[in-house]
Design a protein that fits this description.
The chain is α/β, with parallel strands linked by helices and 172 residues long. Helix content is 27%, strand content 34%. The protein has five helices and nine strands. The strands form three sheets. The protein has a five-stranded parallel β-sheet, sandwiched between helices. The protein has a two-stranded antiparallel ribbon with strand order 1-2. α3 crosses α4. The longest helix has 15 residues.
């Protein structure tokens, strides 16, 4: 993961002044880094019976799709309002720089599903907690939470539900 970490760049003052954004697009465009991310994600969940991977818009779609493909699971997008064509459920949450909402199709998760919710970076945890609440409301058998990278000084894990396995490939 050190190679992948070396390919992630910092963008100062994005999306607003005072934020240091961890830009994973520079790792995604590198074939070696992307392959290493995909392998590491799949290794975490290959033997856990996962049936669905929920990827959070938008960079969570990348790692989430790779993970779903590698372990033979379905992929479910969690999107911004108005982007999904069928009936949805939604959650509004606080981010480090404002408020946001995500939606998921009402019929995306079934009670026998084992789900990994994936996003690229764990910062404050608000987005992931909202996604977790949406998935949990559909009563799946089990939920895992996963990130490619984590910024521990923002204490995002403290904002995630207790008793849920949370993994990150990289810590800054």
């Amino acid at each position: 993961m050190e190679y992948v970490k070396s390919k992630i760049r910092d963008i100062n003052d994005f999306p607003q002044k005072g934020i240091v954004f961890k830009d994973l697009t520079t790792a995604f465009k590198d074939p070696k880094a992307l392959k290493e991310i995909g392998r590491a994600l799949a290794d975490l969940y290959r033997d856990k019976g996962v049936t669905k991977v929920v990827g959070i818009e938008s960079r969570g779609f990348i790692g989430g799709s790779i993970l779903a493909y590698e372990i033979g699971a379905g992929f479910v997008p969690a999107r911004k309002p108005g982007k999904l064509p069928a009936e949805t459920i939604s959650a509004t949450f606080e981010k480090e720089y404002g408020e946001d909402t995500i939606e998921i199709h009402r019929d995306a998760i079934e009670e026998d599903d084992i789900v990994v919710i994936h996003d690229d970076v764990l910062a404050t945890g608000g987005t992931m907690h909202a996604a977790y609440d949406l998935v949990k409301s559909m009563n799946p058998r089990k939920i895992y939470i996963n990130f490619i990278s984590e910024i521990p000084f923002l204490h995002g894990r403290e904002n995630l539900p207790e008793g849920v396995e949370v993994t990150s490939l990289i810590s800054f």
